[in-house]
Structures are given as C-alpha cells and as structure tokens.
Write the structure tokens for this entry.
Amino acid sequence: NAGVTQTPKFQVLKTGQSMTLQCAQDMNHNSMYWYRQDPGMGLRLIYYSASEGTTDKGEVPNGYNVSRLNKREFSLRLESAAPSQTSVYFCASSPDWGLAEETQYFGPGTRLLVL
Amino acid sequence: AQTVTQSQPEMSVQEAETVTLSCTYDTSENNYYLFWYKQPPSRQMILVIRQEAYKQQNATENRFSVNFQKAAKSFSLKISDSQLGDTAMYFCAFMKHAGNQFYFGTGTSLTVIP
C-alpha cells in the first residue's frame, strides 16, 4: 500500500517556466490537499479538494491552479514560476472533508527551486 | 483567526531522558483538535499524537503524551525514554472541529544525543 505518492521529488525551474506537480493516493480518500512549507515555517494550505469534482482555495492560493483529475489524483500547477514559490510542496489526503477527527496522510514532498 | 506558537526553535535531549516541547495557541473556537506532527530528515510528515479539545483526559501514545491546558491554551508534548529516531522537527498544529485546514506552528528541532 503506497499511501500518498508525489512526483517529481525535486525540480529546478527558471522564473517564468510552468510545471505541474502530481499527487496520487490509493486509500480511496475523498479529500485531498496541497501545502507548501517554507524554511522555518509550518505547512500552509494552498488548495484543497473536498471531493472529486470540487476544488477550493486555502490560505495561500495565489500563483497556483489545481485539478482534481479523478478520485485518486490531484495536481498542482504553477503557470509562471517565481522565486517566491521556492518551497517544499506536500500533498495530503483524508477520508472526508470537515471531519477533523480523521487523520490526514501526507506524501513525501516535492522540493522546488525557482531561479 | 487561529495562531499557533512554538517558542523553542531548537532543543536537545540525552538518549533515554525525557523532554517536553511547548506549544501555545490562540482561538475563539470551543471545539477543535490539536496535533503534534514529526518531520524527520526524510521530510515525511508523521502524526505523533492528537487531542480533542472537549476531552479533558490528556492523550497518550506509547512514549508520547501531552499536557493539554484548555484555559491556558497550552498543548505541550512530552517524549519519554528519548530514542535516536526521535530526532526530527516537531510541529504543533490546530484544526477546527468542523474543517480540515491545519494551522501549524513554526516547529521545534529536536536532537537526541547518544
């Protein structure tokens, strides 16, 4: 059971380039999330998908778009990367939205460097 | 708005000793959850322990326990019999009862010394 997987593990971009971070979960979870973690800080929510077919903004959505491709997959796209988007990106999933007693399961992270 | 504060950026402890990590938070919510997550060098976020605010009894998970003081809005993590594998960043986090957005503290880097 792989849990939550993310690709790529590491990526270097030039300012203005675009890329998509991929996330997949095999736990049949309804809800999925994208976070970013900057040095010396905790994770901050970028976007989430409460269920297949829905997406909503989190705390720091500017500069990002997301797609809930199907129940398993939730991608994060940077249309025009900026140095301020250098960060570690985590994907997570949970059985359902709105139930804090349910654990969120995190992927291993994608380290992104924008030059 | 919810805020979570971890005032100890770095801590160290001798192997087999006990260490306590501090966390305070601010919220106007009455029902919520508090969490401690561990992030080892692999960067994986691992849930250590969770506390429901309406439960007075402190949560425990093997060597990990919390001291939850609701009135003081304090949520400290005690690690007993520290092991080398406990070396990691530890994040305190808050979540409203009806919701899934975490509010994380800035973390405490714990080093267990052999």
